[in-house]
Design a protein that fits this description.
- The chain is mostly beta strands.
- It has two domains: 1-97, no CATH class; 105-221, no CATH class.
- The protein contains one helix and 16 strands.
- Strand 1 and strand 2 (14-18) form a beta hairpin.
- The longest helix has 6 residues, at 136-141.
- The protein is globular, with a radius of gyration of 19 Å.
- The two termini are 31 Å apart.
- Residues 2-202 form the FKB95-like N-terminal Kelch domain.
Length: 222
């Protein structure tokens, strides 16, 4: 990279990095893009109605043509990769610090992880988040757990990881994994997203550690 910064959004061919360069930020250096095919970084000179220093969340949408982003103040931006411009209509995301790990799947739907093992969803044009149905049994089985990572498995399937403690005197720390298929449908005349647990179980356990810091996780096919 040409500048040290943080906060990346990834599509199939490029990695976009917004902000993260603090006081030296201006329209000529605020965005960098990495091309996976040419293995090169370059600046994108962009127009933006505001120069936010920190992007809280971002996700690639609309067939890799736009990046939907929220800054630390909750202001929503849409970045056009074709026009190299940010658009903002003044809408704000409520409580952005508790809406993390954004993913784009099931057609045109944004997902994020909530608290208590909940997965939330909304459309890019909307502000209200709704809870994914069908995960109640998992939430009851692991009462009070929080998802530590969500992954896209395919367009209509995702995976989640979380910590759990076994019952008994040893309280062994376990890392659990669940694969969930997602479909949209109407419940009592209201459009909802329903999840089905395809598989779940512990994939790691250790009685000698007191905590787990999951740095990175990704899905791939063998």
């Amino acid at each position: 990279m040409k500048m040290a910064r943080s906060g990346a959004s990834i599509d199939e061919k490029k990695i976009y990095v917004f902000g993260g360069c603090w006081d030296v930020a201006d329209s000529s250096n605020w965005v960098e893009v990495y091309d996976l095919q040419t293995d090169t970084w370059e600046f994108l000179s962009v127009f933006t109605p505001k120069m936010p220093l920190k992007i809280q969340q971002s996700v690639v949408t609309d067939n890799n043509k736009h990046v939907h982003a929220v800054d630390e103040d909750g202001q929503i931006f849409n970045f056009s990769a074709t026009e190299c411009a940010f658009e903002s209509d003044g809408r704000r995301e409520s409580n952005p610090e508790n809406r993390s790990n954004w993913l784009f799947a099931v057609g045109d739907t944004i997902f994020c992880r909530g608290t208590g093992g909940k997965i939330l969803w909304r459309f890019p044009s909307q502000l209200d988040w709704k809870e994914v149905h069908g995960l109640e049994e998992l939430q009851q089985q692991h009462s009070g757990f929080d998802i530590i990572k969500m992954l896209i498995h395919s367009n209509e399937r995702m995976a989640i990881l979380w910590e759990s403690r076994t019952q008994g005197p040893e309280h062994v720390l376990e890392l659990w994994y669940a694969e969930i298929s997602m479909v949209r449908g109407c419940i009592d005349g209201v459009l909802e997203v329903v999840g089905t647990i395809e598989w779940s179980g512990p994939i790691f356990s250790d009685s000698s550690v007191t905590g787990l810091n999951l740095l990175f996780a990704e899905t791939f096919y063998l």
